[in-house]
Amino acid sequence: MGFIAVEYYGVTPIGPEMFPCALLRWAERGRVLPLWLAASAADELDVRDSGITPRRPTAHDLLVTTFEQMGGVAEVRLISQHRGVFIASLVLGNGEEIDARPSDALIIARIIDVPILVDEDVLTDSSIFVSASDLVRYFDIVIEDAVANEAGSASGDVQADADFEELMRSLGVSEDDLRGE
């Protein structure tokens, strides 16, 4: 079981219901792992991502302080998933792993700026290919130089394009919704 570092691209509302979703990107493969969040966790991540530090410590801040006294958190891992429910762990500086909800693990990772790693099997099974141009088109995420390299065309991978279209349909998003028609 190997772990792969992913890039965190923030929280975005998806679908007609506008459910919050954290987007984690497996850069080497151009794949995105959507991680659905409760509204409270999405709000906490949005606040942290905007650079705002709460005046008083939150529960996550208290956990971080406690972990720092125990040697700190080295990394956050998404270790498994079953039917869309992910399991995370915090890896402490001494190598000990502590079970965590993925939303809490992401918040802690954002507070202390540690790597987010995902089990390769989880990434393979649960992520989808999203071209750089589709990241811009659907999520306003710009990957440096990648959009230009695609030369404005589709990904060139028919199956990957079909997977992305199916994801968007399953989220209740049609091309007409995106065009404002």
C-alpha Rg, in Å? 17 Å
Please state the overall shape, judged from the principal axes of the Cα atoms.
Answer: globular
Taking strands numbered 1, 2, ... along the chain, how are they ordered across the largest sheet? 6-5-4-7-1-2-3-8
Strand fraction equals 25-35%
Q: How many distinct folded domains?
A: 2
Distance between the termini: 46 Å
User: How many β strands by DSSP?
Assistant: 8
The CATH homologous superfamily of the largest domain: Bifunctional nuclease domain
**What would the average pLDDT be, to the nearest integer?**
87
CATH architecture of the largest domain: Roll
Largest sheet: 8 strands, mixed
CATH topology of the largest domain: Bifunctional nuclease domain
User: What is the name of the CATH class of the largest domain?
Assistant: Alpha Beta
Into which percent range does the helicity of residues fall? 25-40%
Output the number of helix runs.
Answer: 8
Poorly predicted segments: 147-153
Structural class: alpha+beta
Series of secondary-structure elements, N-terminal to C-terminal = EEEHHEEEHEHEHHHH
GO molecular function: nuclease activity
Protein name: BFN domain-containing protein
Domain BFN: 3-130
Organism: Corynebacterium kalinowskii
